[in-house]
């Protein structure tokens, strides 16, 4: 029998700081109403990057192609994101834990954790750069210092996780909404030709009509945002249990805070497109895509006074960026926690990875990599959509239609194979072929459609591989009989459903535990993840029958 003692740092022991970053979120911690979870989840979707993306796509691909691309994104987000959001809210787990049980396996999902962590870093840097540029424009300090300030200021907001974020997002949402409305209504009412200017804008592509290739290229950039459902999941995992009494508001909150983020983002992309087209003749194509410049011009139309306009525009940018980057930093801290806990069996606490996230993002801003926005997002889309497509296919096709995948989501290391070729294999194949398409290997005609190819291949390959492998690699073992036996004998209370981890000595809900033959007792999912000496003994030499007998 192995040594039964594991001590965590104070950062890990504090549930408010740690926010159950690597675990199932227990019922005792989920005290928020569906309404508060919705406000926290949707409150982060006020990104100035949406205006920048809308403006950039309009300048590059034209108004019509940008609008159709935004609509296409919205449709795909709702199709893929709704079942994912539902499973997250029902099972109270984050995107990484869902991915493990949706065809990727315990170590297979480490790659998706890295993909997702990269997503949060890219968008943290993008949003931080916008915030930094606004700070420099207003206070006239060096840009590198503004980038540093815009990064560091996020740490206190994210330190206390969902407890602080839910309040911050809810309190600031009305102020943000009022300022946005004033800018939009003001421009349209003051400039009667603004709509006509927008619809006839040709940009650098010199086109105001539909082009299949330009539409596909614009959509390819936007499809990287399919991974945004992962950030929504970080809030949705705190949904209260679904009951007969709350089922309607519960479902509405899950959809609105899940795939519903794209409605707000789409509106902002359209506004960014509108602003960019109207100010480009006076500020130039490059500056027209800068959200701070967009809103400064809009508020000048409304208020006239340049100082007042710049002050209000700067305040709006800072508020928006604080809201979105608090979410990017929070989600990034969870992703890095998941990635390093499995690869290095090391977990110093979510707060450590929060600081790591902020430092890397600040370096990206200072190095100026954010200037290659379209290229970065266009390449990233190929991998991100393959991941989301594979998870979507497993939940909807393999679990619901083919019934090859288990009907439940298993996320514990002790019960999973390290790699499941269903999700992991389909994502790898789809990513490789779509990236090759992106770089023109299969010709220039297919090149703009690389992200579509990635999504299509992942959705098709997942059930094909599941059928070929007969679902063999989903579940390595099942120790639920051990806990059922303890419930029947009264060792585990039917009311609280908790047991004590043999390693760390803390109590957890049995949903977050497994029987460990190496330590000869129940073990929590985190202690199991961090164990490096067992070499997965439980999955090679132990049976469920033996586990059940341990309670007698």
> Would you tell me the overall average pLDDT?
85
Under CATH, the topology of the largest domain can be stated as: Hydantoin permease
Low-confidence stretches: 14-18, 542-546
What is the number of helices?
26
Sheet with most strands: 2 strands, antiparallel
CATH-level-4 superfamily name of the largest domain: Hydantoin permease
CATH class of the largest domain: Mainly Alpha
Spatial order of strands in the largest sheet: 1-2
**Category from helices, strands and their pairing:** mainly alpha
SSE pattern: HHHHHHHHHHHHHHHHHHHHHHHEEEEHHH
Shape: globular
CATH architecture of the largest domain: Orthogonal Bundle
- Percentage of residues in DSSP E strands: under 5%
In helices, the fraction of residues equals: 55-70%
Number of domains: 2
Gyration radius from CA atoms, angstroms:
24 Å
